Structure formats: structure tokens, C-alpha cells
Amino acid sequence: MVCKLKQIVDFVREYKLLEDLDDEAITETFHTFPHCCSWDKGLGFAELDESRLDLAVDKIMEVLDESYDHEYTAPQIKAIATSFMGIFEAAGAPKSPVPFVIVMLARI
Predict the structure, then answer these.
(1) Minimal CA–CA distance to 60: which of 92, 44, 84, 90?
(2) CA–CA separation, 80 and 17 (whole Å)
(3) Residues 57-100: pLDDT tens digits?
(4) Whole-model pTM?
(5) I want to staple 25 with a disulfide (CB 3.0 to 4.6 A). Which of 21, 49, 62, 82 is the partner?
(6) CB-count burial class (<10 Å; 0-12, 13-18, 19+) for 104
(7) How many angstroms separate the first and last alpha carbons of the chain?
(8) pLDDT digit string (tens) for 23-40?
């Protein structure tokens, strides 16, 4: 389970997923995602795949709705998330749920 701030920073640095952002920006994004470890534990799996992507989309929409004034729709977020599945794959990064959500939130 990768869900604590240091683990997230280490993860995105290891796989070069947010190279243009400093640790402070990643920390800010992390803090918009409350209770990420309990959410991760409740999922019952360690890696996202196409069949589980809707769970990440639901969480991204929830965090966006609670934290930002935005106009994204769930289908738009799903299309973006599908693209990010490919980015994680190209980087050789496991699609761990919390880092996936953090990277998505940092990029949209």
C-alpha cells in the first residue's frame, strides 16, 4: 500500500511521473485527498486495471467536488484516467490507486 506522503513523493520521483513539480506542490495535492490510506485499504486490491478504473474516477470526482470549483464530468475524467493508465505503463510504474489519483489530481 502506497498512501503516505513520503511514499507518494518517493513513488512519483522513482517513476518520474511529476518531475516538473516540487515536493511542496505534490504535498499540496496530497492534502486535498483526505483519508487516502483508509480509502486504499478499503479497495481490497493493490493495483488499478481497466475493470477497476471507475473506482479511481469516482474518488477523483469526489476530491474535485470537495476541493475545487471545476467543470469536469465523470466521462471526461475517465477519458483522462484511461490516458494516464498508459502513462503509468510507459513509465513502468505500478498502477497503485493512491499515487494514481494524486498524479491525476496534480495534472488536471
Answers:
(1) 84
(2) 15
(3) 999 999 999 999 999 999 999 999 999 999 999 999 999 999 99
(4) 0.91
(5) 21
(6) buried
(7) 24
(8) 999 999 999 998 999 999
Q: Provide the pLDDT for residue 80.
A: 96
DSSP state of 91: H
55 HSE (CA, 13 A, CB side): 19
CA pair distance 90, 84, nearest whole angstrom: 10
Contacts of 107 (CB under 8 A, 6+ apart): 18, 80, 84
The amino acid that residue 14 corresponds to is E
* Gyration radius of the chain's alpha carbons: 13
- Under 8 Å between Cβ of 74 and 98: no
Average pLDDT of 10-15? 97
Conformation bin of residue 94: beta by default, left when phi > 0, alpha when psi is -120 to 50: beta
Q: What is the 3-state secondary structure (H, E, C) of 14-49?
A: HCCCCCCCCHHHHHHHHHCCCCHHHHHHHHCCCCCC
